[in-house]
Amino acid sequence: MRTILQNGRIDGSDATDIVISDGAIEQIAPPGTVTAEPGDETIELGGQLVLPGFVDGHSHADKSLWGEPWVRRGSVAITMDQMFDDTLQQWALPQASIKERARRFLEMSVAAGSTTIRAYADVAPEIGLDGVHAMLELKQELAHLADIRVVAFPQLGILRKPGTEELLEEALVAGADAVGGLDPAGVDHDALKVLDIVFGLAEKYQVAADFHAHEDGELGVWLVDRIAERTRVLGMGGKVSMCDVFALAQPSPDQFAHLSSTFADAGIAFSIGVHGLLPVPDVKGLHEAGVAMCLGSDSSRSLWSPWGDGDILSRAMMMSYKSYWRTDDDLELAAQLATSLGRRALGLDARGVEVGASADLVVLTGEAVAEVVVQPVPRSLVFKRGVVVARDGALVADDVPASRQEPVSRPRRLSGR
Questions:
Q1: What percent of the chain stands above pLDDT 90?
Q2: What is the mean pLDDT of the segment spanning 348-370?
Q3: Which of 150, 260, 326, 417 is least surrounded by Cβ atoms within 10 Å, i.e. has the fewest?
Q4: Architecture of domain 2-52+351-404
Q5: What are the sequence ranges of the domains in the chain?
Q6: Which fold would CATH assign to domain 54-345?
């Protein structure tokens, strides 16, 4: 059976018909030229925009308190130590299981259009591998909704928490797709030893490596150089990524030129951070230098931060606003970072809405791509491999377990409790 999407405007272009078969785009044709065969399903889009499925390259779904009773946040200091304390306190809260909370956040992310998600799962002696096991189970259970990649992430550091290195290895044995590191210099205070551990595990288990790197200034530049060296020596270009790279927030011109060329030459991907306190990096300059980049939801309404809703299109809007992007070319680049360029950063097929590409699609109302970046609207339809998985900002009923389905009059919208 085929699905024929009639009168959709790919990336805001003229109306066209899109034929989907076996989870992929089989044909793109002028409106009205495709003859429906017995058993075909036709969906009239009425001139709505059709974009590739969104990519969330930095999700902390395991820390989400989405759907839980509101927790009053009182911490004032914006420091790593405060974040560590908040993380430990959150694990001690009376709340639903990690799996149930993460499921809520991931389902909401899909309803907002994300069909590919890189999800970090905390690993620490205090929680063992509960987060990793929960995310690996969700990776399988939600595979029809999104492709989920699980990163075993040492949220409290590696060296400062003895036993974490062993847990990271257990996580990889259990099936995690990547191993992470957190501030090798700033938190663990022995960057080279941390790089030995993370790259050693990545090489041993042939998985990707990912670093959160909040070190700024010259220390941050030095750390990127060390990570790039390891990446080149091990031939891991395209399998290493970094996010929260504060050294890119306010670099000197010489530092920016050095960092952008280093990322591009070593094949290190960069997940763009949109932080309240820091400027957005020079994304256009990085793109022109050839750096592979994606957007990420990052915050997930945790005890550390009340922000985060899993909506990558809103993240593209925030990035564009903070960068003061005004031209359609720039705003279209923001949409590409949320879609095809984001897939490239994760080492996936970077084709957009093209014949042969997977039919991961988002349909939404608007005249132009730039318009929906400036003013994100509800997602009319979300397709995963050609199957409708969300409609009007809510998962379709078939994708909601019966025990958690609400009455038809109260669809599961993109909202809190």
A1: 88
A2: 97
A3: 417
A4: Roll (2.30)
A5: 2-52+351-404, 54-345
A6: TIM Barrel (3.20.20)
